[in-house]
Amino acid sequence: MAGSDFLHAVAAGDTTLVLALLKSSDGSAQERRARAASLFLAASKGYTLIVEAFLNHGTQSNAAQRNGATPIFIAAQNGHLDTVRVLAAVSQVDVADANGATPLAIACHKGHAAVAELLLSAGATVNRRQHNGATSLCLACQAGHTETVQLLLRERASVEVKGREGATPLYIACQNTHAPIVRLLLEAHARCGPVLTNGSSPLFIACQEGAALIVRMLIDAGASLDQATDTGGTALFIACSKGHAEVARMLIEAGASVNLHNRRGGTALFVCCERGHTGTARELIKAAADPSMPDISGATPLYVACQNRHLETVQMLLELPAERVGVNVSKGSGATPLYVAAQKGELAVVEAVIRAGATVDHRTNAGASALFISCLQGQPDCAKVLLNAGAQPNLAARDGTTCLVAACGSGNPEVAALLILAGAA
Question: Which of 31, 137, 237, 271 has the fewest CB atoms within 10 Å around its CB?
């Protein structure tokens, strides 16, 4: 008898033919291998009667494929409840595949709650870990299978078990924005504190994902608002960084500290201005965020708003007193908001900063003025505005290069002509 006969019969779902083949079996090694492969195929398709036939004729139920999967694993993966029931009566229910996943784990990952319940009643270990540390509850939380999570919690699955890098079921549910599961885990008294090795918490990851409903639940559950990661980022910082205005507002209203900074010295307001999230920046200022607080390079919120050409954010900041936002404050290189705006050629920003009282002839540590950098970049519109504001056309950089030489070097005769008309030598 050819081994392929079994496979063809199973593929066709022909129980009668399978039984006939089994009755005429010669018991050879080749045939035993074919029967084992056919059992896997029948389990994967949920052909329960065929599975029973193979088992009744002595086919081994615990034989594994190269990846470690057994027939009951395959049946559980595909949600074949009746087939799993038959196999569970004669199989080891906790045998894992090469990744350490058991039939229960794969059933939970796929959301086959009825299969998971059957396996648990057959003795499956609810808190068995895969090689990466994840349990069946972790997998169900990741995939968003609420019914399966409810089942596992009833069976006393641990809510504090940690998988890869320390992620708990609550962290995983927050990361994947499964709000109903988050609620279930909090009701089961899952802790909200930092869990990952980098200090990230469920609240931090929920804020990163912009999951407002989950953030509200975590705040109400007492999550620490100002807990920082190992880079110094708080929940408010990451919400502002990602532009999640509603989440940032929730955190501010709940009392999150608005002037904490990360290891680069950047505050929540700083990152809002850097990325042009004007509305959230305004909310932070209303909550007493300091608009003059620089990062470790000396750059202020106004500086980075100018640097990144966020006109609306610049205008919002300039509604505040000039000394409060640091219109003339320079970073370590000596560059001011006006200088960097001129460097970027952002005319509207240059005009706004000048109106706010920027010193037009302030020079960097290298001696370059805003006019000089405009000339070097070949930007006639900015150069004209600066000259009209009183910029000196003959100020030279420390290496002796004048604005006129810089303009000629840029290959822009319009800028050179403007300088000559203004008296540049």
Answer: 31
* 372 vs 351: CA distance, rounded Å: 16
What are the tens digits of pLDDT across the range 233-288? 999 999 999 999 999 999 999 999 999 999 999 999 999 999 999 999 999 999 99
- Both tokens of 51, joined, read 């599975």
pLDDT tens, position by position, 372-388: 999 999 999 999 999 99
- Amino acid of residue 91: S
pLDDT score at 194? 78
Strand partners, 261: 267
In this prediction, residue 30 carries a pLDDT of 85
From residue 365, alpha-carbon distances to 51, 59, 335, 398 in Å are 81, 83, 8, 8
Q: Give the pLDDT confidence of 8-24 residue by residue, as tens digits.
A: 999 999 999 999 999 98
Mean pLDDT (the chain, rounded): 95
What pLDDT does 3 receive?
Answer: 62
For the entire predicted model, the pTM comes to 0.89
Three state DSSP letters for the chain: CCHHHHHHHHHCCCHHHHHHHHHCCCCCHHHHHHHHHHHHHHHHHCCHHHHHHHHHCCCCCCCCCCCCCCHHHHHHHCCCHHHHHHHHCCCCCCCCCCCCCCHHHHHHHHCCHHHHHHHHHCCCCCCCCCCCCCCHHHHHHHHCCHHHHHHHHHCCCCCCCCCHHHCCHHHHHHHCCCHHHHHHHHHCCCCCCCCCCCCCCHHHHHHHHCCHHHHHHHHHCCCCCCCCCCCCCCHHHHHHHHCCHHHHHHHHHHCCCCCCECCCCCEHHHHHHHHCCHHHHHHHHHCCCCCCCCCCCCCCHHHHHHHCCCHHHHHHHCCCCHHHHCCCCCCCCCCCHHHHHHHHCCHHHHHHHHHCCCCCCCECCCCCEHHHHHHHHCCHHHHHHHHHCCCCCCCECCCCCEHHHHHHHHCCHHHHHHHHHCCCC
